[in-house]
Amino acid sequence: MNSVDQVNDAVMPWDGITVGVLLDTLGPDVVRPLALPHGPSVVIGSPSIHDTDQAHVELTDAVLLVPGRPSVDLLNWAVDAHVAAVVVRASAADPEPMTTAANRAGVTLLECSEELSWGQLYMLIDALRAVTGPVLEEDDRAADLFSLANDIALRAGGAVAIEDLSMRVLAYSTIPGQVVDDLRRDGILGRRVPDHPTNAEDYSVVLRAETAIWIRDQLDFRPRLAIAVRDGGEPLGSIWVIEGENPISAKAPEVLAEGARLAAPHLAKLNVAADADRRQRAERLGQLFRGTGPRRRIAESLGLRFDAAATVVVIGRDENPSTHSRGMSAASAAVHVSVLLRMALSSYRIPAAVGSLDGQMVAVIGTAAESPVLQSITTTVLARSEESVGGGWRAGISRTLESVADVPAGFAQAKQALGVVSGPFGHGEIGKHQELGASLFLLEVFDALQSQSALDAEPLSVVADHDSRQGTDYVRTLSSWIAAHYDVARAAEALVLHPNTLRHRLRRLAEVVDIEDPDVRLALALQLRLQEINAEMID
Predict the structure, then answer these.
(1) How big, in percent rounded to 5, are the helix, strand and coil portions of the chain?
(2) Pick from 118, 120, 129, 126: which is nearest to 49 by CA?
(3) What is the spatial distance between Cα 271 and Cα 533, in angstroms, rounded to a whole number?
(4) For residue 31, what is the DSSP state?
(5) Range from 340-344, 385-389, 413-417 carrying the lowest mean pLDDT
(6) Residue 459: CB partners within 8 Å, gap ≥ 6?
């Protein structure tokens, strides 16, 4: 540090901003007060994401962001830790007892909007402190994401935005004279990238690429150079530079690569908050799928109309490890797939609650199961998931539900459909429950009979024993005849026999088992089909 810096530090002491400044700046749509026992003049320090093990973390004057379900004991603990303010989620707890407890304990309690992630609130508070606080050293490009965005913008020659995987705008540049288009302007104002038909494809391409790539040829927004931000190979977000009236710098790709490296630890830290958000969202989704808790309130907190029709989709991966590439864990891959689906649905303005549970992507979507758009979106997401996190993905789709109240039944249907399409009775990558009646029945029968060794029992075992003792070929004959729907001419062609020869063989077979009995025919057909499935599973 040079002498000028030392003088500046000496003559510009800074204690921080107050709760009142925070509330006035962010506004009631973002944060509102529940308890102000010491008024709005309480000075606040840095934001901190609450962790159950924070004994080693200095929290004096901190703004404590509390994912999950807060408790009264937490407020008392915050007082002991000299926390300046505690922020909770609107739907996480009953506000009345929390407000009473906060006033009694003497700690500021604020409520955060449902629309804002914890990571985004963290960045807003951090940015507010940055713009009202002392100037950072010019060489410290990674000091915060806003100063990093400005640094990249100056060196690359275009306006910059830094975003997370959910397309939330975490930081943006503010260099005078640099052009921004309507898409960027709306993203900054709404703190989220606006819906656009090409969002899912564009972001998928950027997140797959190892270097900066161009997104061009769009009539309604300017060309952009973008790069993925990664930590240990896993994507955390992206950085975007807009090309203005003049071309951006030839060194912009290298500048973006350096910026991505510097942004990675910041986004990784924010990812902790995002994980907490996802856990809370997963908890609410879990309640919705189990049919527990205040379902209407949960549905509305997830952006769903409780009384509207809905469909449940579950996307999972087969268990073949050879298809699992990119070194991602099952949980991380499921989160990535959920982001792809969420982006695709938002492009069509379809309301949905999307998350991940037990290594699978799960979603309640406000549209009918028969919707061609849902089929198209699901197909696209499966393809892009294979490109970005490896193959083996399948989707199960429930029947159309009359309302969100039926989600538990729809969840069971979607999982059944996924089980069928991923198993021996499956065809293709997408299974719709309403189209899988026969396969669902056969799967249930297969599971029941397999445990009782019924696949090799009578009446088929009688025919197989005769073949073994007499050297006949009655099992294959039966299989071809049944597969031809008992049409002798078609079966004879498949067996390369004259029809009369097959008729004679069937008459001899009738002496072994009564193939004229419809129940015997059904049993033989079922045993033969299930044996084929069993052989496929073994292979």
Answers:
(1) 50, 15, 35
(2) 118
(3) 44
(4) E
(5) 385-389
(6) 513, 520, 523, 524, 527
User: In one letter, which amino acid is 399?
Assistant: R
Handedness of CA 85, 86, 89, 94 (dihedral sign): negative
Q: Which amino acid is at 425?
A: F
Omega into 97 within 30° of 0, i.e. cis?
A: no
pLDDT per position as a tens digit, 334-361: 877 887 888 788 767 788 988 888 888 9
Q: What is the dihedral of CA 534, 537, 538, 539, to 10 degrees?
A: 120
What is the CB neighbour count within 10 angstroms for residue 59? Answer: 19
Asked if 284 and 301 touch (Cβ cutoff 8 Å), the reply is: yes
pLDDT for residue 316: 92
- Kindly report the pTM of this predicted structure: 0.51
Kindly report which listed range (216-220, 258-262, 374-378) carries the lowest average pLDDT score.
216-220
Give the long-range contacts of residues 493-496, CB within 8 A, separation 24 or more: none
CA distance 95 to 138: 43
What token pair was written down for 527?
Answer: 């045993």
φ and ψ at residue 353, rounded to 5 degrees:
-115, 115
Beta pairing, strands 85-89 & 17-18: unpaired
Phi, psi of 90 (to 5 degrees): -55, -40
Element (H, E) at 75: helix 72-80
